[in-house]
Design a protein that fits this description.
The structure holds three protein chains of three kinds. Chain A is 76% helix and 0% strand. By secondary structure, chain A is an all-alpha fold. Classes of the chains: A mainly alpha, B mainly alpha, C alpha/beta.
Amino acid sequence: MMDKKTRDILITNFFAVILGLILSGFMILFLGKNPIQIFILLFSSMFRDGYTIGEIFVKATPLIFTALAFAFTFKASLFNIGAQGQFYIGSITAVSVSLMLPSPAAIPLAIILSFVTSGLWGGFIGLSKAKFKANEFLISMMSTYVALNLMNYLLRTVLMESKGEYPQTETLARSTWLFKIVPHTRLHFGFILALLSAITIWLILYRTTFGFRIRAVGQNKEAARMSGVNPERIYIITFIISGGLAGLAGVTEVNGVQHMLLQGFNPSIGALGIGIAILANGNPIGIIFASILFGALHVGGTIMGQLSGVPSSIINLMEGFVMVFVIISYYVRRKWEVSRDKKLLIEGNI
Amino acid sequence: MMMSTPLLLGSLSEVFSERTGVMVTAIEGIFLMGAWAGFTASYITGSLAMGLLWAALAGLLVAMLYAYIVVTLKQHQIVTGTAINILILGLCSFLQRVVFGVPLSPLTVEPLQKIAIPLLSRIPFIGPVFFEQNILTYSIYILVPLGYFILYKTSLGLVIRSTGENPEAVDVSGISVSRVRFVTVSVSGIICGIAGAFYSIGYLGMFTTNMIGGRGWIAFAICFLGNWNPIGAFIGTLIFGLAEAFAILMQANASTILPNELFIALPYVLTIVLTISRRSFNVPSKLGIAYFEEN
Amino acid sequence: MVSFQGNDMSTPFFELRNISKYFAKVIANKDVSLSVERGEVLALLGENGAGKSTCMKILYGLYQADEGEIYKEGELITIKTPRDAIHHRISMIQQHFSLVSAHTVTENIILGNAKGRIDWKKAQKSIQELADRYGFNVDAGAKVQDLTVGEQQKVEILKSLYLDANLLIMDEPTAVLTPQEIDTLMEFVKEYSSRGNAVIFITHKLREVMHVANRIIVMRSGRVHGNVLKEETNERELSRMMIEHTLQEIDTKQTTVKPGNVSLSVRSLTVAPRREVPLLRDVTFDIHRGEIFGIAGVSGNGQLELCMTLCGAMKSTSGSVHLDGQDITHLSINKRIALGMGYVPSDRHRYGMVMDMSLSENMLLKASYFSTWNRNGVVNRKKLAETTSGILKHYDVKASGPNALARELSGGNQQKVIVGREVEFCGDFIIFDQPTRGLDLGAINNVHTAILNEKKNNKAIMLVSTELSEIFTLSDRVAVFYKGEIQGIYRTSELDSQKIGLLMAGYTHQEVI
């Protein structure tokens, strides 16, 4: 039964992605360019060399984290829309630690502290929900803007580079950079960290009593309460973990890719994380694949821009269309199921 | 007062939608689409009125897409809204490129002029604040009491309120719940589209992709904080409009003691504080829950 | 049978012909044909899930039939939405009222029937006049959520009267009423039908049918299995038409057990939230091992609060609860579960199970803090599946296995799973709250057998029920609840349905006994 359902999901999502790409291609026509040519160019150049392929995974890494963040709270029927803000907090922490401690020891320290600070930032949302029954959707949404402004402020003042020209930090010392796992690419240890996190989250959710309780609260809070679970405590803990996950993306981007912190830094990985989580139906393993897909779209979009002058916003367009079609596919799947069952029933009775 | 306008338009329409049980989470996207459409239409035709018309149209289309997925296909409201917001973000900057190419200098349009109402604007202090505004702001003076009247004193309002509380009761009386929700959300789209246009053609006179900056969400929040009531929305909006105007004022005066960012963040912090402290009394019971008509 | 002069008796008022309706997983109606005359009270009798509500919803336009037609006075009509039904003067009162609780009586009644500007004062006045005309004691300006269930039903009826309905369909109207309220309702039905209107009455209660109906149609598994006049039949025959196989009569005599020590002890339990009407008032009783203690009363009189307080989901304001001598008044839910308290909740969808989880996982729901299947937080899935399979077999649950989703099971089987879970994992005290609500007779039998088994196993059992027959069959002693207070505790043999009905309606012990 489970396999049939999974098969259905994979098929419909595949078509959703294709449709999304087709529609985006259609939009390219408006630019007066030939979409088919461009897409062929896109696919061939995405795999042109090791560096580009590596880029796909580099882009996927933070997305895995933010998608996990949204999915984890989603399992508890909570909406953490603030992954972007938690990411910023994590970034701030990572860069601060690395600046203060320019040695390899900064890396594990940054990982732990980023998780903690962004976890607390997210935990605040969980606390508000638990203690005050506040709407976590609104609070998490707003907290992102607050975190953004906090980061901008710090970049302008405390963290600013010694040159004082731009609102960004010094470049981090080489010893604090995450080591590369594939030579001649930018692919770094952060990707491994992301994979491990996804697997760990999967194990927690589906193989432990703790994860079970989270899912029970998400699916039927009252029944969970009646069986001894404390939903409020679950809220707080889930948001802490969720926030922490988004914060880890901060470490990977700061220490692994950018090697500094600047404004306008990865501005939409939070929202994309949500899209990816939806595409993967909240399943951590699925998130890995969906993130790689979105990473590929991103790389592809950039290449399109370089080679054929299609603007980079095509990426958002593709992502948006794919997401919308995935949502519609939920409906289509349901309809199939119902009519399939109905037919079986009528046939069985004639 | 001026800054309140789009927030009020947004939150008022959100009140109506949420009263039928639908959260328009695509509101940020609708605002943005309206801003873009309004600007582009004004620039091309040279007429602000056309701009507003196209803004309304754009808002309507986005809202109808949202309504289709959420009301007809009965999909998840928060997830769908997020998807649409991302889509619109890409769409607007993409379309901007399609229509205008890469301009050498930022394109501008003459923003809406302020019109002074003859006698009333002479009243000292209050006069200029309330009666020397642009046309969109004046529309609020009519819309708030109108909204209150419709919601509480007409049968349409009764149906709207009942749909959010117990859609079954409405269904059983022979009224289509889907139709009520779809139409209400679509109308919201029109109003929110115009609200978004305020930012581009009503105030700044240009368009940038991040000009909405979360203010669609603030309108969304105001609906909550105003207790799903047009009067509450009005009061909530005034507070926020004030905060935002205050922020701009402080920024302009280049205060070196307190950082700029503090003021920019102020409205958002305010929302958080209010969300926590307010116990939502009148949440429409079925808010956010899709209604599955029998069959 | 009431004959209505001046009408062609061969043409029925409303008729359903060859109606069939298929849902995704079940055939709800197959080839259903029935008709009702003017001035007639027709009872649609059948077990839960027999298809009675479905064909009526088709008549009212909430569902569309896959096959078949509807006729009014011999003419074919189409009913696609409730609007069409209302147009034909049909009105339906559902089992779960379709009222907006936050709105007033007036707002509810004129919903869908007013246009444009509403003059609230005028509307309220005319609704009040309507209510007074029919002798309904209802305040047109009151909020529905403040009314009693009986009054809410009156509001639903008023709505139909406001619409000038000629055919009134009522779905399980007596489920939530006291015996006296039921009498009032029946009076209204008689009076309404004597004026030439028709009433169709959906129910599964044999006794009521014999009291009120002129004619009875029995449905089973989506088909019509009987169409008789009341005079021509009796309860036993109707029961035979309703179910497929003869049920084993439960022998309650065999399970008389001498009650043992006190297991649960409740003293002066009060739940009185600030600035609100007290939900429980000074409740005191004991339950012994090997005893079934019944809690009777119209639902909404504190039974749910009692259950919630006992299992730890609700805080009491004062009073104490002891289990086997230990004070559990302030213990958390999972501590009470650990001490052996079992609870089969009345609303299994809301409190008992997670529909989208597998049966194994639903078992885990009860025991996620126990170490039975859990080693350092990791779940031993094999052991869990084995235990679940064992329970499924023991309780004769029709399911594909421990991995089946709870949602896939029928209501009866779901309830069996919950009963099995609570019984297997609890210690010595179980609460059964409305354990057979919505179940077919076979499943009811199963559950009753399980309850009696536990009594034999010397467990202390609290049975909350609104079905008086269940209370009388199973309980040794009964406490009757009214507005949060116990009207009295009696041996079952001391009461009959009239006395218990009065107690349920608020009469005091002195007035009744």
